[in-house]
Design a protein that fits this description.
By secondary structure, the protein is an alpha/beta fold. The protein has a single domain, classed as Rossmann fold. The protein has ten helices and eight strands. It has helices at about 10-20, 40-45, 55-60, 80, 95, 100-105, 110-115, 155-170, 190-195, 200-210, and strands at about 5, 25-30, 50, 65, 85-90, 120-125, 150-155, 175. The chain has an eight-stranded mixed sheet with strand order 3-2-1-4-5-6-7-8, with helices on both faces. The termini are far apart. The structure holds NADP nicotinamide-adenine-dinucleotide phosphate. NADP nicotinamide-adenine-dinucleotide phosphate (NAP) binds next to helix 1.
């Protein structure tokens, strides 16, 4: 894997682009307003990056990142993402996204909805309980005492394996919190989300186990 397509060039997408390039990948990055609005970011990222429209970023990536809030009606390029592992960084935020009843009732997780919207992709929840700037600053070499851990959730083991390799390259340990139906355990407000600045693998395992499913009425 050498090229990562990144849809979303905000706080998370741009930080994943920086970390990916530092780890030797090429990135093709997109936002909603068009590639011409990403010139400053691409200039900063250097020759390993180019900007594109979302469909082209999805098509160019051997793997894709969706660093965009989920919409009830799919706004991601499902056809170009088909057959690919798709890292989804989305967190469900009612203040931003409005109420989504199937999530509020606990019937589905937000990442199960993303998987439904991208039925021919392998969705994996990743990079959701770390503040974006820390993606490039909080990583440590494997084996360093206190190395932070991040969770990954997917219905596809190969997607978790890929995220585990990427996390390791970026400086983080992994806890597998699969399948997607369990991904609420690392969601906003949960212990794993609150403790994001200082949790090792053992801490994260304990925090995921302590999670309590919120029912929003
Ligand atoms: N910020 C954090 O620390 C953090 C940490 C973990 C997870 N998250 C989650 O990760 C997701 C992204 O967060 P963020 O903070 O990076 O958001 P952000 O800074 O607001 O950036 C969102 C990006 O998505 C793009 N976008 C929106 N709709 C699009 C579409 N239909 N096609 C292509 N691009 C589209 C936006 O492009 P335009 O600007 O051109 O509209 C923008 O580049 C959110 O769900 C957030 O909850 C955030």
């Amino acid at each position: 894997m050498t090229v990562i397509g990144i849809i979303g060039a905000g706080e998370v997408g741009s930080q994943i682009a920086r970390a990916a390039i530092a780890s030797g990948y090429d990135v093709v990055i997109a936002n909603s307003r068009g590639p011409e609005t990403l010139q400053d970011l691409v200039d900063e990222l250097g020759p390993s990056a180019r900007a594109a429209i979302a469909a082209d970023a999805a098509a160019a990536g051997e793997v894709a990142v969706v660093a965009v809030p989920l919409k009830v009606v799919n706004d991601m390029p499902a056809r170009e993402l088909a057959g690919k592992i798709v890292l989804d960084t989305n967190n469900y935020m009612v203040w931003r996204d409005g109420h989504i009843p199937v999530i509020d009732s606990g019937a589905k997780t937000v990442h199960e909805l993303r998987q439904e919207q991208l039925p021919h992709s392998k969705v994996v929840k990743a990079f959701t309980h770390i503040q974006a700037p820390r993606i490039t600053t909080a990583g440590k070499a494997a084996g360093t005492p206190g190395r932070l851990a991040l969770s990954a959730s997917s219905d596809f083991p190969e997607a978790v394996e890929l995220v585990t390799r990427l996390y390791d390259q970026f400086g983080f340990d992994t806890v597998d919190n699969s399948p997607l139906s369990e991904s609420w355990r690392s969601g906003p407000g949960q212990p794993a989300w609150i403790a994001h600045e200082h949790q090792t693998r053992a801490d994260l395992v304990a925090h995921l186990a302590r999670a309590q499913r919120p029912i929003v009425r």
